[in-house]
Amino acid sequence: NSLTWSAQVFINVYTKIRELISHANQLEVAFVLFGYLFMHAVFINLFVSMRKLGSRLSLAASVLLSSSCAFILALYTAHLLGLPVDVVLLSEAIPFLLITVGFEKPYTLAKAVLVESELNEDSERPSSPLAEQPTRPGSPVLQGVEKAWSPIMRDYLFEISLLTAGAFSGVQGLREFSILAVFILAFDALLLFTFYAAVLALKAELIRVRKVRATTATKGAGKLLRTESEVELAHRNSPANYRAITLQALSDSTVDSRPAANSTATRVKLFVIIGFLAVHIFDMGSTFREPITGRSVPDSGSGQFPLVQGALPDHLPTVLADLFVYLKPALDILAPMKLTFHPVHEFYTQTPHPNSAFSDAAITAATRTGAVPESLGMESALSGWMVALVASLVANLYFIVTRIQRTLASNNDSSMTLVGQQIPEESDSEKLNDPTAPLRSVEECLVLVKDGPASAATVTNEEIVNLVRQGKVAAYALEKLLGDFTRAVQIRRSIISRDSLTKTLEASLLPYRHYDYSRVMGQCCENVIGYTPLPLGVAGPMSIDGELLHIPMATTEGCLIASTSRGCKAITAGGGATTVITRDGMTRGPVVQFPNITEAHLCQKWLESPEGFAEVKAHFDSTSRFARLQRLKVAIAGRMLFIRFATVTGDAMGMNMISKGTEKALALISERCPLMQIISISGNYCTDKKPAAINWIEGRGKSVVAEAVIPGTTVEKVLKTTVAALVELNVSKNLVGSAMAGSVGGFNAHAANILTAIYLATGQDPAQNVESSNCITLMAAINGGQDLHISVTMPCIEVGTIGGGTQLGPQAACLDMLGVRGAHPITPGANAQRLARIIAAGVMAGELSLCSALAAGHLVKSHMEHNRA
Asked: What are the boundaries of the region Disordered (predicted)?
């Protein structure tokens, strides 16, 4: 029966493999084993690559099925043509063929088809739901095949042509395998554009149907998702998620005008095939030689076969085993043999002895069927397989390194580019950076530099460094003198490095290239020597006021984003966060002084009167289209008067705007009170970048309150604790504990952590986290103690969406992600208020997760596991 037959086949295969291994040395077995290991690595890489395209299993399985069919068809074709196929040879050579050829062609075709599918959907998406029309699945496949078939077929033809040369080499074994490989590639190309293309069409249609269903479900819902499972399902099936999965992997697509990413790999692998053929054409190995069979025992006169002393013991067991094996089928009388051992002579290493046991006649007489020549042939195969394997490993290693370098360069080039933004071209300052070139005189170089950027471009970097060190040119003015920001930064690095103690800056890992310094100079930073990249992650998604968002966070603290994401998950499962803006007003508090307290008191009364406030407001508001004075708070201390101006500032954070208005208002007050002396436009009554009770009580910037209700089941499943434990911990830690410490605005677990990370990601002033992090976290058990109510109150969130660091490329990209970049086109200040709401909701998620970890006792364990180098 079939079971017995299968068992017998398995036993035979096992016996044959064991016999082959016993006849080979350890190096040969190791090479074949490494070949199979790398072949499986190619399979794993195929699944990983297809997973980047949004397919967990189907595309990779289709590729393997297509390749297997091509292999079977090639074997059948070889059988019809009478081409002998050695199973042992095939099992040894197929892994190296797979490693060399790989699966780049199906991956390239899949990328092209899915990109066209994505582009078609974006271009054909109707403006109104009533006009929706299904996208034809055949169109993206045809367009993708049309754009990708040329490089794919070129690679196939090159590989087939090289293998065809091997087929005409005349080397036994290599000829048969090359013909079989040609058939495999030919059938693989045929199935790629027929069977595999059909699979891609189904995949494109499946993605489109999922997007349509997700869009329909989103439009028809009309309410917030209430359960954790619904939120996860909606996110997984959302169009944005599929678009992100697809476009993330297709950033180096071959369907545009840019060259294909795997062109280098293709060329390298062609050289590997050439080298593989050369190994055997020039007789560097003998693995593919057919064993010698059917030869009779030669008639030696004496019947003696001299052997080299020391060589026979290694092969005598094989000789004797083969003699007994071939005596089984039929009785055959062999001529008697007399084995004579001779000492090793010097001439053996130069010319084989005519009667040596290693001659074909002697070995044939010993085995009659060629078993020994086959095993001995494996010895000489070592050099051939070694060259082929090493060449394949070097080629793949070169490909991996090149791909990593290209990806990093592409990320650096594109990381600072937004839609509609151009990075200024950088001059080739390397040609001006020759330390060995002779320096011209200081006077001549100074004339060229002061003549303008065009003349300064002819001055070398070393000459400019010399000018700065001679005190002829200011280091901070290099950008203005040279007109080339990147070159100015490079020269400044050289100056600072040579004047420093360690002299390491010039060749350090601090990056400075591929950055748009035009958005930095005169606004964000001076004496620039580069930029410091920060890791950027996202927490979420989180439902905030009915909108599902990912929150960008830049941080170097491990577990912070993961913890915040857990809080986002729990809050969203309960229906999401709700936020309100209770007050909006940036403040500035100048200090003025009078000759006596009477004059100070009279000025205070006038400022607090409706007439005085109206007059001051009119002068203040005249300085800006957006700045509008809301209120004044005046405090007297002896002869000094502290005046706190509170102003709405639109979508800007507003410190410069309010300072300008305050200066104009103080000029008016000086006219009304001639004895007044202005001490400082900032008298620490604002209060800016310092902890102060007035900020906590009166507020500064945006005052936001956020709340959420988390079901008890979610608290237990997601947060791994209970409602009662959370409420008790919040009272003991955030309320009583902070009061015992005499805290002002610090009634929270770690609000500053989340707020500062979002500030860094979105280009806010990180120093303002001092007052912006003022927060009180409250928790209560509701619905009979079953559910948790959590809220955070943050009266001092100071943010803006225009000006300052928000104009830098990466920070502007994060604001784009949240949909709040720039000024709001209709309602001034709406974008900044929306950003403040998002920050408060994010802080609430971080508070919830950390308190849960503390209540469950998981904090130390998680940091020890995930936050250690």
From this structure: 123-142
**CA terminus-to-terminus distance, the chain:** 59
**pLDDT tens for residues 143-183?**
777 777 788 888 888 888 877 877 776 666 677 777 888 88
Residue ranges, the chain, pLDDT below 70 = 1-2, 5, 9, 20-28, 31, 86-90, 96, 100, 116-140, 169-173, 212-436, 860-869
In degrees, rounded to 5, the angle at the alpha carbon of residue 240 between the alpha carbons of residues 239 and 246 is 90
Half-sphere CA count of 575, side-chain side, radius 13 A: 12
- CATH code of 536-584+699-866, in short, is 3.90.770.10
Report the alpha-carbon distance of residue 553 to residue 568 in Å, rounded. 13
Nearest to 868 by CA among 860, 756, 40: 860
Amino acid 351: pLDDT: 40
Closest CA to 158 of 106, 101, 103, 96: 101
In this prediction, residue 419 carries a pLDDT of 39
Tokens read off for 745 = 């605005």
Handedness of CA 712, 716, 718, 721 (dihedral sign): positive
For residues 629 and 660, the answer to whether their CB atoms sit within 8 Å is: no
- Do 590-680 and 23-262 fall under one CATH topology? no
Residue 49 is predicted with a pLDDT of 80
What ranges do the domains of the chain cover?
Answer: 23-262, 304-354, 429-519, 536-584+699-866, 590-680
pTM for this entry: 0.54
Contact criterion met (CB below 8 Å) for 611 and 731: no
Is residue 584 within 8 Å of residue 702, measured between CB atoms?
Answer: yes
Pick the CATH number of 590-680 from 3.30.70.420, 1.20.120.450, 3.10.310.30, 3.30.420.40: 3.30.70.420
**DSSP letter (8 states) at residue 577:** B
The CATH architecture one would assign to domain 23-262 is Up-down Bundle (1.20)
Residue type (1 letter), 301: G
Supply 101's token pair: 């050829």
- Rounded to an integer, what distance in angstroms lies between the CA atom of residue 461 and that of residue 466? 9
Cα angle: 342, vertex 345, 350; to 5 degrees: 130
How buried is residue 380: exposed, middle or buried, by Cβ count under 10 Å (0-12/13-18/19+)? middle
C-beta separation of 342 from 308 below 8 A: yes
Query: What are the Cα distances from residue 824, in Å, to 703, 801, 810?
Result: 19, 9, 20
CA distance 674 to 540: 57
Active site residues: 557, 689, 765, 863
Tens digit of each residue's pLDDT (9 = 90 or more) over 672-718: 999 999 999 999 999 999 999 999 999 999 999 999 999 999 999 99
8 Å CB contact between 159 and 273: yes
User: Diameter of the chain by CA atoms?
Assistant: 141
DSSP class per residue in 474-530: -GGGHHHHHS-HHHHHHHHHHHHHHHSSS--GGGSS---SS--GGGTBTTTBSS---
As beta bridge partners, residue 635 has 642
Tokens matching residue 630: 């809301």
Half-sphere exposure of 1 (CA within 13 A, CB side): 1
- Determine what percent of the chain is predicted with pLDDT higher than 90: 42
Cα–Cα distance measured from residue 725 to residue 436, given in angstroms and rounded to the nearest whole number: 71
Is 287 within 8 Å of 377 (Cβ atoms)? yes
CA angle 335, 339, 340 (to 5 degrees): 140
